[in-house]
TrEMBL record:
Keywords: ATP-binding, Kinase, Nucleotide-binding, Serine/threonine-protein kinase, Transferase. PANTHER family: MITOGEN-ACTIVATED PROTEIN KINASE KINASE KINASE 20-RELATED, SERINE_THREONINE-PROTEIN KINASE YBDM-RELATED. Coiled coil: none annotated. This is Serine/threonine protein kinase. The keyword Transferase applies. InterPro entries: Kinase-like_dom_sf, PQQ_b-propeller_rpt, PQQ_rpt_dom, Prot_kinase_dom, Protein_kinase_ATP_BS, Quinoprotein_ADH-like_sf, Ser/Thr_kinase_AS, WD40/YVTN_repeat-like_dom_sf. Residues 283-305 are annotated as: Disordered. ATP binds at residue 50.
Amino acid sequence: MPPLRGTGANPEAEHPEYAGQYRLEARLGAGGMGVVHLARSASGLQLAVKVVHQQYASDPEFRARFRQEVGAARRVSGAFTAPVVDADPDAEQPWMATLYVPGPTLADQVKRNGPMAPAELRRLTAGLAEALRDIHRAGVIHRDLKPSNVLLSDAGPKVIDFGISRPYDSDLRTETGKLIGSPPYMAPEQFQRPREVGPAADVFALGAVLVHAATGRGPFDSDSPYIVAYQVVHDEADLTGVPSDLAPLIGQCLTKDPAGRPTPDGIMTTLRPPSYDAAAFIPSQRRPATATPLPGTGADASADADTHVGAGAAARGRKAVRAGGKQRWLAATAALLVMGAGGVWAVGTGAGSGGAGESDGTGGAKEAAEDFAPWRTVLRTTGKGTPVCSPADGAGQGATGRTAGLFCAADGIGVTRLDPADGRVLWSRRAAEDSPSVGVVSVSGPLVHTAVPGGKLRAYDPAKGEQVWDADLSPYLGTPFDAGDALLLVAEDGTTEALDSATGVSLWRHSLSGHRRPDYALYDAGTGLAYAFEHSAYGSTTLVTAVRATSGRTAWQRRLNGMLTPVGTSGSALVMTSMNGDAQTVGLVRYEPGTRNVVRMALPFRMNEPEVVLGGDTAYLLAHGGTLVAVDTQPAQGGETVRWQLETAAGRTSAPVLGAGNRLYFSTADGRLLAVDTARGKLLGQTGPRLRNGRLTYSSALPAPVAAGRTVFGTAPDGSVFAVDGQNPARW
């Protein structure tokens, strides 16, 4: 067995003897980012443990990327990958353990034994197509499929190394001047439009992998990566030596236009002829479990395969949006010139398909779904195009009854009322052409309020859409804060004014004692209290004030240690997040104003910009990057605070909302809507992405979905508003 520690400056010298509880027994392979070791679990299972090089452990961007890798690996199906057993992306040296799969990589197999026989090639084609189907259904794009990332086990091919994979809605960008990837297996769009890469890029890579398996070389061959890149973008693939019955299919996979490539399902259908020989093309992982060997990561992994990852249960769902179009060679040349200066290959953001998880097991879901009619309405928006919606009764957070109306607003459309039953537009009041973006503020009082930042606050009759009153917002900061029967505005000098939401008349106006310029973060309809907060100059303390929204009287005020933000109430207690000096959320604080008791709970790791929703005594924190954590805000003495943790692998997300039946919902930047079981911490389902012209655009905030009874309303960048059945997310 080779020594675990080397000498000198070699990165291997930095690696510890253990990764978590796992003793590292032998080295399996190494790459630019880490070393893969053989290890064993307590029960004796052989594991492949990837340990990140010390030099990358202190890089926050790399840690975020590695966390995303772990999330993607857990998300895809273990039937076609090496399943993740354990991981700690927050360790001093991050690591991830997957089950060990005995068997060579495709690269090693071809190098040692030459091209595959036609029957073997067909089985490989079907097996990899099936793997990509499940990877894409989980909303993940691999983006680096190549022979060294395909393991040939007795149970069929396994796809490994999700180090640069990405869910479609992620905005984790590579550094300028870097393109990570393997040029002979990269799709044209990865050179031309790296931020618009979709699942079709994996199909292109599959075609290149199959050419290598059939011939021992790639469809684009050169010693220079720059020439290969040019060939990928402009030249036809060289299919010489590819079996004639597979050449048309592989050639279609290598089409320059992503829209012209087959889907993984299409490939599998093509490989299903009505003959006895068809059985030979079915991947062997469908054999009985007794014939399935121990999964994991291949001992013969090549040196460039620096990560071996697996997955949790695959989410099922719809096909992904595929990016299309072409770009001039000039753009590819410019990218290559920058790339040459940086000396590192990279890729951009990929596009993923939405999928659906499993149902909640309550039974009767199919029958219930038949009583529900989903709908989708596209609003004629401009700009970013993602509408913001509010229910008429204001009971979007877990309401049990049907909403009386749905009011939506977005750039260019003003405010529109939709029929929540079928999505019909009942009335619309278009904004002025020269006005900034318009968003729904609230539906209360009982009027519909929309605001133009720096302009006007307008109130409409919800039944007819007639304007009732308006107010000038120019003296105030931001948009009004909805506090039930009052709309709270903060002026430049810190003065708070409350407007009656029904009439627009000023209810009160004064400064809050002790505050210079407060922010309002929370309103509790049960008590009528609005919570203002303000951090001290250096963030060491926070002044929190509970204000009666309609009268302006202070119910209580307290200065607490730490940089705190109110996020919810649980009974009489106020729950707040606590941040460190780097604006990372590190804990929760529960404050009882009656007893002045303060309870502080540390989070298991620091979270970047989490959105938080409180349900009873449980806080659900959804972090940038898709990590969702359920935390008990009133744990027993010495008890665990974290109830469960789920890696959704989503990039940018909306705030989560709670719905009936132990459901939590949130949206992603590509227009997907996801549902999570709050009792078990499991992904129940997700819709497909809905992008405007197939492009992922950036907006400063993502609208949260609306949950009203069994109906969940979502919005997307394509300008659409849609309704799905919250009782059956598996069928979304």
